[in-house]
Amino acid sequence: MVKRLVLFVIIMLCLSACIGNSGQKVGEKPAKETKITIEPMKLTEKEQQMISQTGVEFIEYFKLNGGLKKDDDLVFAVDMYKKGEKEEVLSSDHVFQHRYKDEITSFGVSVSSNSDSNSEIMTILLGLPGGLTSSSIDSKMMGSTYGRNLAKKIQLKKNKPVFLAYWKGTTEDYITGPDKNDDGKFPARLKDSDLAIVYKVTLVDRTE
C-alpha cells in the first residue's frame, strides 16, 4: 500500500510537469474582484496510462483559473456519509493563494486488503494546489460506484459548495447510481448509501 502511494505521488509530480503551468502562482497580489472558475480536466492517453499503474481505483482531476480578493478564500473538503450521517474526513482549511492559472485539484480512492481483518483499507486521496493529503478508513463494502459530478466550467459563488466527484459503496450485492449532477449540485442519493464520499470546493470569507 505504501509503495502504491509513493508511486502515486511521483505520478502526480510527473503530471504537473507534463501539464506545464499547473501549480505555479501567477502573482501574490489579490484580485480587485473575485472571479474564479473550476472545470474538469481531460488527461492524455499517456497520463491515463501512468495513473492506471498506481493501483488507484479511480481519480478525477479539475482545473482552477482566476483570482480572489484579499478577504476571500477557497476551502477544499471531503465529506463522508454513513447511512445519512455526515462527517468531514479531509479539509484544506485555507489555501492562502489569491491567483490561479491552470491549478490542479484532484480526488481519488485507493483500495487494498487489510491483512488484520476481513475488510479492506480505503485510502482517500486529496490533491490540492501545492500538495497531496490522504486519509484511510476500514471498509467492508461489497461493491462501489464512483464518478465525476461536474461536466463543464462553472464560476464559484460565495458560500455555495460545488460537489466535484463522489464514491459510493454498498454492503449488498447490488448498487444504484447516486443521481449525479453535471453542474456540481449535491447528488441527493448519496445520503441513503451505506457509505459515500463526496469532494467539494467552496468560496468563503477568509477568516484571518
Quick tags:
208 residues; mainly beta; 6-stranded antiparallel sheet; 2 helices
Please, what is the oligomeric state? single chain
Strand order of the largest sheet: 7-6-5-2-1-9
State the end-to-end distance: 38 Å
What is the general shape?
A: globular
Estimated helix fraction: 10-25%
Put simply, the count of helices is 2
What order do the SSEs take from the amino end to the carboxyl end, as H and E? HEHEEEEEEEEEE
> What is the residue-mean pLDDT, rounded to a whole number?
80
Low-pLDDT sequence parts: 1-24
Biggest beta-sheet profile: 6 strands, antiparallel
Number of domains: 1
Radius of gyration: 17 Å
Number of strands: 11
Determine the structural class based on helices, strands and strand pairing.
mainly beta
Strand content: over 45%
